[in-house]
Automatic annotation (TrEMBL), chain A:
This is Hydrogenase small subunit. Heterodimer of a large and a small subunit. NCBIfam families: hydA (TIGR00391), TAT_signal_seq (TIGR01409). PROSITE patterns: TAT (PS51318).
From TrEMBL, chain B:
It comes from the Bacteria. Residues 11-196 form the Cytochrome b561 bacterial/Ni-hydrogenase domain. It is found in: Cell membrane. It is a multi-pass membrane protein. This is Ni/Fe-hydrogenase, b-type cytochrome subunit. It comes from Raoultibacter timonensis.
Length: 406, 228
């Protein structure tokens, strides 16, 4: 079976589609920006494109395997809204999407065979969407007589890199939220446990922004390199700053102009959503720069406080964004002790009030026992000293004037 | 009326100053902290953030300076005396306090009628005061882990990772503030419930007569009325 798609000669391909050199350079500029470079890098991108597999006369497209774990396919849907290059261009002319449960036209045995051949040939990228379910021996995601966990390990072993796409793939996401019955976790952690050393690129988000995956594909496929990653294996250019750092409502935050209630005049004026539980200050992602839906808008611009969907510690499923950020409209998450769920502020206030109440009661005790005017009279001798006269701490002299006797 | 004499030697001027700084910084930190957590006074938000970071830094520096000064400044080991020792010795276990923890607890719970003899700082008092510098360090650490300019430094981000992210770090910072508030309630209550003299000495260096304690004999040996 043919597993490698081919393209016509690069320039020919462009002119056939009515793409002028000028259009091409504009695209290169857009691609450079998507990859986190400035538009000044457009010439390098153009050169990379021209000399890449796409630009080659009979080049091989970069094979990609896209596997669904415990996912809602929301990240696939999101990717299908990619702006420039559009998903059709990516799928047909940039990569060879050899296996994708959602997007592939083929199905069944021939698909599985295509995947197997791609894995055998090597030099491909694995995109894994959704959480890894460890419970029940991985049977929850059993496909083609192979357990879900085996499918991941098998496909990841020979891949050049694994892209863990979406918060679920990064650390379990929704799947790992309490009580996490399926023992969901992220790709990086599972592969580490399984002893697979393939590098993992974590791309959290619920869903992941399409431009983020495109940026990574541009890096890997066109620039032939992995993007610069931070300590959590997330692309630095996307995940090293908070939403708050680049928020368009930041000016209102600085001015102290806040929305306290949906539907209020403050909301109409586009004030800062911080009091409504916005997780922008603690969520790292460049949503406000890349934006969503063909770069038209994004959550905060459209009036919704950030709910922190990009929070995902790859090695800690307990730090999934749902657990960490609910209830979304409160400034604090809920804490849980057994089945008892509470807000930190409520418990802190109750404890403080109990202490204050106890002190007031104690104060009445002090009043009643007559200690408020200088305290009770001092003991003449420590009780311990009275019991242990041979080892007495104090050197009590009966001739000394004793305290509290006047 | 049976308290010990309140002499300036118990709280030398440098410690009066550090105590003032602690008070002002903590009050401002708590007010601004509440405001940062939820902007009750929106127009105050920008100021609150600046004041919060500034007071946090001052509180931390003040704490370090206070601990260092304990080795160079002398203070009285007990109340009711003008004798002085190196201040750090008054923070270690003292003979005057030995076997007195139970007595103090019983006294506070009204199970013991007479006032326990002891050092300048009674047993529960000393233990709780010693927790304060530790608490200040925890607040500084969690605070810097939440402050954008320092949150990405490995020393802080490693801790953030350990506790489960910035939200957990925020909640720890928040709970610790309540520990301060509860401490202040108890501290202010106990320092003043038996009379305002300790407060007048601590803040305004105003002396007050009372019983005289001999740190050598570990007991009360007389009275100094100071013409009251």
């Amino acid at each position: 079976m043919e597993t490698e798609a081919t393209v016509s000669e690069f320039q020919e391909m462009l002119s056939e589609r009515g793409v002028t050199r000028r259009d091409f350079m504009k695209l290169c500029g857009a691609v450079a920006v998507a990859a986190g470079l400035t538009e000044l890098a457009a010439p390098q991108v153009a050169q990379a494109l021209e000399s890449s597999v796409i630009g080659a006369t009979k080049g091989n497209l970069y094979p990609v395997i896209w596997i669904e774990g415990a996912s809602c396919t929301g990240c696939t849907e999101s990717f299908a809204q990619a702006d420039a290059p559009d998903p059709a261009t990516v799928v047909l002319e940039m990569i060879s999407l050899n296996y994708c449960e959602t997007l592939s036209a083929a199905a069944g045995w021939s698909m599985e065979e295509a995947k197997e051949q791609t894995i055998e040939a090597g030099n491909y990228i694995l995109v894994y969407e959704g959480g890894v379910l460890k419970n029940w021996g991985g049977q929850a995601l059993r496909v083609a007589n192979e357990t879900g966990t085996d499918i991941l390990v098998h496909a990841a072993e020979k891949a050049n890199a694994v892209v863990a796409l979406g918060s679920c793939a990064v650390n379990g996401g929704w799947m790992a939220a309490h009580p996490n019955p399926s023992n969901a976790l992220g790709v990086q952690q599972y592969l580490k446990e399984a002893g697979v050393e393939t590098p993992v690129i974590n791309v959290p988000g619920c869903p992941a922004n399409p431009e983020w995956l495109v940026a990574i594909l541009v890096d890997v496929v066109l620039m032939q390199r992995l993007p610069a990653l931070n300590g959590e294996n997330k692309p630095s250019v996307i995940y090293d700053q908070t939403i708050h750092d680049n928020c368009q409502r930041r000016g209102h935050f600085e001015n102290g102009e806040f929305v306290y209630e949906f539907g209020s005049p403050e909301e109409a004026m586009g004030y800062c959503l911080y009091p409504l539980g916005c997780r922008g200050p603690q969520t790292k992602s460049n949503c406000g720069i890349v934006r969503w839906n063909h770069r038209r808008s994004w959550c905060v611009e459209s009036g919704a406080p950030c709910i922190g969907c990009c929070e995902a510690n790859p090695m800690n499923p307990g730090q999934n964004w749902v657990e960490v950020n609910t209830p979304f409209y409160k400034r604090h998450r809920d804490l849980r002790v057994g089945d008892f769920v509470f807000q930190p502020g409520t418990v802190a206030l109750i404890v403080t009030a109990v202490v204050a109440g106890a002190l007031i009661v104690h104060g009445f005790g002090m009043k009643v026992s007559g200690r408020m005017d200088g305290g009770a009279d001092f003991e003449k001798k420590r009780a311990w000293d009275a019991k242990h006269p041979d080892k007495s701490i104090g050197k009590y002299d009966d001739d000394d004037a004793k305290g509290g006797q006047e | 009326m049976a308290h010990l004499a309140h002499y300036r030697e118990a709280h030398p001027m440098p410690f009066v100053i550090t105590h003032w700084i602690n008070l002002v910084c903590m009050i401002l930190l708590i007010i601004t902290g509440f405001s940062i957590h939820f902007p009750f006074w929106p127009m105050f938000m920008g100021v609150a953030r600046g004041v919060h970071v500034f007071c946090g830094a001052i509180l931390l520096i003040n704490c370090i300076v206070r601990v260092i000064m304990a080795f160079f400044v002398k203070s009285s080991p007990t109340g009711g005396t003008r004798a002085q020792v190196a201040d750090f010795k008054t923070w270690l276990p003292q003979t005057d306090n030995r076997h007195q923890l139970g007595a103090w607890i019983k006294y506070y719970l009204f199970l013991k009628k007479d006032h326990p003899l002891g050092a300048k700082l009674g047993v529960p008092q000393k233990i709780s005061y010693l927790l304060i510098p530790i608490l200040i360090l925890v607040m500084a650490y969690t605070g810097f882990a939440l402050w954008a300019p320092t949150m990405d430094l490995g020393f802080f981000s490693a801790g953030t990772n350990l506790v489960g992210g910035l939200m957990s770090m925020r909640i720890i910072h928040y709970f610790m503030m309540y520990v301060f508030i509860v401490f202040m309630f108890i501290h202010i209550y106990l320092a003043n419930i038996e009379g305002i003299s300790p407060t007048l000495l601590m803040f305004f260096w105003k002396e007050h007569g009372g019983l005289v304690y001999d740190p050598e004999k570990h007991t009360i040996v007389g009275e100094d009325r100071m013409e009251h």
